[in-house]
Specification:
Elements lengths: L4 E6 L5 H12 L2 E4 H14 L3 E2 L2 E2 L1 H6 L6 E6 L4 E6 L2 E2 L1 H4 L2 H11 L2 H14 L5 E5 L2 H5 L5 E6 L2 H14 L6 H17 L12 E4 L5 H17 L1
Parallel strand pairs: 1-8, 1-9, 2-8, 9-10
Antiparallel strand pairs: 3-4, 5-6, 6-7
Helix pairs in contact: 1-10, 2-5, 2-6, 5-9, 8-9
The structure holds 2'-deoxycytidine-5'-monophosphate.
The site of 2'-deoxycytidine-5'-monophosphate has 14 residues, from α2, α5 and α9.
């Protein structure tokens, strides 16, 4: 059967990864969480001391990019692919608020994006992939057959992210999470290299008041029509 590429973009906590994982499962496609890759590079920079009170030491991180090796490995227990950085499973540390607070300046570096975009294009070269991020429909796969742009209010998204972090046992306040969501929205959509924008031809879905089932049904019907065409 014909395989397509599905590109999903949108601000943080718009439910992209939940939708993308379900879609991939329904279609038997690979799911790639491109945000995990930017998070892993950020975690590397933090471990190396390139991010501190002084901010981000971009030159040192850029100089060390060839020492970063990333891959996804399927975790049979969690039934999802886990992010590995230089052979270490970093799924847990890359999801902390600490990494979320540092990731946007790292993702704004053109050299970082160049390296990760090339890897993402390689992962999707055979099609049959669902990838989510900020520039998937605009830069990584501008020819994707199906492009989605998910939105929701900042308040709705901060509540979702707050609940996720509390459920994981992180000690955070709602105000801290909302501030992080708003700051990342601003940097991710105003940076010079590949800012988040709705790709040409993307279907926009505001899911502030829409359940997962309804979104999935809508998107799956689009996907199946494209696969059958
Ligand atoms: O999707 P996420 O919240 O895990 O992504 C983390 C950060 O990585 C996000 O604030 C912006 C950046 N990112 C990006 O610039 N381009 C992508 N394709 C994916 C994520």
């Amino acid at each position: 059967m014909k395989k397509i590429t599905i590109a999903i973009d949108g601000f943080s906590s718009t439910g992209k990864s939940t939708i993308a994982k379900q879609l991939a499962k329904e279609l038997g496609y690979i799911y790639v969480d491109s945000g995990a890759m930017y998070r892993a590079v950020t975690y590397f920079a933090m471990q190396r001391g390139y991010i501190g009170a002084h901010g981000l030491d971009a030159a040192s991180l850029i100089g060390a990019l060839d020492q970063i090796s990333l891959h996804f490995e399927f975790d049979p227990e969690l039934r999802v692919a886990a992010m590995f950085l230089n052979g270490e499973n970093v799924e847990v540390p890359i999801r902390t608020l600490g990494v979320s607070q540092q990731v946007s300046p790292v993702a704004a570096l053109a050299e970082v994006r160049e390296k990760l975009v090339a890897m993402q294009q390689q992962m999707g070269a055979q099609k049959g992939v669902v990838m989510d991020g900020r520039d998937i429909g605009t830069v990584v796969f501008p020819d994707a057959e199906l492009k989605l742009y998910l939105t929701a209010s900042a308040d709705t998204r901060a509540h979702r992210r707050y609940k996720e972090l509390i459920d994981k046992g992180e000690q955070v306040t709602y105000e801290e999470v909302l501030k992080n969501v708003q700051e990342r929205d601003y940097i991710d959509s105003h940076r010079e290299t590949s800012p988040l924008t709705k790709a040409a031809g993307a279907i926009e879905i505001d899911n502030s008041d829409m359940g997962l089932k309804e979104q999935l049904e809508r998107i799956l019907s689009h996907a199946k029509a494209l696969i059958a065409s």
